[in-house]
Amino acid sequence: MFLKEYITDVVTGVISLLKGMRKTGYYFTHPKEIITEQYPDNRATLLMSDRFKGEVVMPHDANNEHTCTGCTACELACPNGTIKVVTKFETSPEGKKKKAIDALVYRLELCTMCNLCIVACPSDAIKMAPNFEHSVFDRTKLTKVLNQPGSKIRKGIE
Amino acid sequence: MFSLEGITTNVQDWLLMKFNPTMALAIECVIVILLSISLFALLGLVLVLMERKVAAHIQIRLGPNRVGPGGMFQTVADTLKLIMKEGLVPDKADKFLFNLAPFVVMMVGMLLLAPIAFAKNFQIWDISIGVLYISSVSSLSVIGILMAGWASNNKYSLIGAMRSGAQIVSYELSAGFAVLTIVVLTGSLQISEIVNAQQNGWWIFKGHIPAVIAFVLYIIAVTAETNRAPFDLAEAESELTAGFHTEYSGMRFALFFLAEYINIFIVCAIGATLFFGGWMPLHIGNWEAFNHLMDYIPSSVWFMGKTFFLIFLIMWFRWTFPRLRVDQLLNLEWKYLLPISLFNLLLVAVIAILGWHF
Asked: Higher confidence at residue A31 or residue A143?
């Protein structure tokens, strides 16, 4: 009885090991099934997932308008001081003073892509972009102003 | 036809013509030393690249493909980097043993090179107790590993070295028994005679099922002896941070790394010699035409082909099986491999006495 168990142990062990080797052997003999991205070579055709968080950007529409009200919710939400909102007061034609952003300064070198600023934004003015090639030779290039020059807030966003 | 035997006889004739016999012998020794060192360096480069490529393809990747065509010079670049690195010795390490250990490990590899027959009549030292010599010298490498682990003054290194000691001491047994089965079939310990006995067929075919079992046991045991996955608990990157060579850097680390691959080559060369006929071409019984055709392939090509096939097999193991625990490792040896190999040896003895093998 003991001997029978022992032999079945050995045989099943060997069979399961051979199964594993068959699987890896199949992969070895089928080099067409490579699953890794050949990154620098396939830059033209590289598809990034929509959920990939590479950097914070502020989308502008065709009239160079954004939806940022300068509420500083993103600045408050940021855990390591990546975002700095510089506000100014604009006078509308009716003579009313209105708060607007002068610059939304984003320091990429401090950002951990935690997504908290995007969640905090009440008007969906900023979002995460799937760019990841951020290497630069000069560190000051990592400090970016997200609103484009001459841009203004879209009408109807409070 | 290309043959290494011709080259060696020509060199010897030329040396004997120019110098007196003692001088010629001394020059031959120097040539052999230079050849074996360059073989080591070359093997290190080739095997590391092969390992990385095999691993990559098994894991559905491409592997190194940037340096040179198809990544061919990746290992050369790695070696240059290692040579230029600082060889650090920890403050409280035992300096003498720490520096000695990598050389002990390398030296064992060099000693093991002596009785291996690389081609027909191409052997450094055809010693009459070749197999015994191999099994006794190969067990010395554990001394180097223990030395490295102890001298590093690091708990991970020490644990790794102790594990390695337990492992090599136990797996030496089943490797020895697997080698003995072939010795029983051949009736000789001499490597050249073992190869010649496989003139009409390799032992793995002639020795029926016991030879196959012995081969499987041998390949398992030597995988354990060379500290490779699934038996790499002496190194175990994930738990011991490389085990006995945690504290080594630069060229000393490179020597350990090289020694691992040299040991793989040597055990595979011995496996090929014992079970697959060494440099002997594939001969099938009395098929004269087929045998003659096979003879046209140089014997060195046969030897290297078989050895690299076995090396591939061991690499295949490494990238397929998960690592064993220490208790599982010792269970496998003492409860499974050792009883099976003892029984197998008995079976082979019966076959050899009754003359059932071809």
From this structure: A143
